[in-house]
């Protein structure tokens, strides 16, 4: 278990992390969602001890912490962070990077060979990285973190620059890592992809967690009805709703209507659908809020 307790980080009096406490368990994938500048990367830097908070502590398995240099070394044997493309050496091959990372964490070349096969990198991995495309470099950075084989892996925008096929491949590998009882914490803005593999998704703002979506609790989330409407249809529907809307959620597109129907009876839902038919509205869907809708509500709605 990775635990952060009462973490506060402030720059020039502005709090980036505000008395933040979180617990993460092995065998889960956790997504961090927020616009730039709201604390995602700062949190990762604090967990790695690249940045010391004004208050609070980070512990792993209740025994590892950053209270001494030897403890820091022990923590970094357990926790790794995603390499940046700017850290790659142009004149070294991808294979040499992978061997270097594996050896730094005491892992064998056999581990490297398995990673190359898993990520389908054999056709280019022995070429110098200066010949790589952005997508190839991103896949190499992911492979380098796999070569550490740490129990906790922190990844900042791991899917950047990847095409859909490679995003699907990386997603499969992430799920496989979870099955190996590893903890994966991912900061990402690619929300649709994140929802396919994350067990928990945390929305951050002003240094705090403002919303948490748990895959295990999706069954209990509110149901919404989405519809494509014009302004006249919108006004007619809102004027004839079976009951007042209690949902605060809004959509950016004025041609879309979002209605919370979780507390509607079957007859009230039928009445609402009849209004849709009377207004000749045929394009509608029933379901939970998407991550994109949640993102707009928390960060973009005015």
TrEMBL record:
GO terms for molecular function: ATP binding; ATP hydrolysis activity. Residues 2-231 form the ABC transporter domain. The keyword ATP-binding applies. The keyword Nucleotide-binding applies. Coiled coil: none annotated. Keywords: ATP-binding, Nucleotide-binding, Transport. InterPro entries: AAA+_ATPase, ABC_transporter-like_ATP-bd, ABC_transporter-like_CS, ABC_Transporter_VariousFunc, P-loop_NTPase. This is ABC transporter domain-containing protein. It comes from Vagococcus salmoninarum.
């Amino acid at each position: 278990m990775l635990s952060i307790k009462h973490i506060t980080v402030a720059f020039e009096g502005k709090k980036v992390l505000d008395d933040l406490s979180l617990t993460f368990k092995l065998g889960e994938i956790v997504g961090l969602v927020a616009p730039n500048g709201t604390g995602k990367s700062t949190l990762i830097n604090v967990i790695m001890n690249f940045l010391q908070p004004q208050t609070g502590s980070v512990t792993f398995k209740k025994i590892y912490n950053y209270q001494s240099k030897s403890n820091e070394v022990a923590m970094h044997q357990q926790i790794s962070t995603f390499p940046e493309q700017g850290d790659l050496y142009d004149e070294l091959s991808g294979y040499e990077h992978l061997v270097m990372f594996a050896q730094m964490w005491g892992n064998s070349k056999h581990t490297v060979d398995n990673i190359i096969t898993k990520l389908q990198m054999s056709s280019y991995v022995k070429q110098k990285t200066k010949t790589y495309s952005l997508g190839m470099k991103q896949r190499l950075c992911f492979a380098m973190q796999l070569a550490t084989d740490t129990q906790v892996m922190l990844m900042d925008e791991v899917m950047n620059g990847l095409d859909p096929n490679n995003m699907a491949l990386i997603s499969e590998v992430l799920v496989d890592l979870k099955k190996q009882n590893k903890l994966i914490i991912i900061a990402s803005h690619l929300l649709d992809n994140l929802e396919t593999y994350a067990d928990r998704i945390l929305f951050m703002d002003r240094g705090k967690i403002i919303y948490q979506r748990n895959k295990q609790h999706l069954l209990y989330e509110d149901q919404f009805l989405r519809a494509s409407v014009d302004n006249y249809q919108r006004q007619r529907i809102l004027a004839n709703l079976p009951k007042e809307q209690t949902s605060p959620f809004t959509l950016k597109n004025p041609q879309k209507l979002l209605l919370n129907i979780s507390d509607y009876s079957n007859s009230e839902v039928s009445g609402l659908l009849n209004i849709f038919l009377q207004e000749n509205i045929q394009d509608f869907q029933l379901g939970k809020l998407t991550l994109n809708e949640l993102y707009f509500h928390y960060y973009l709605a005015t």
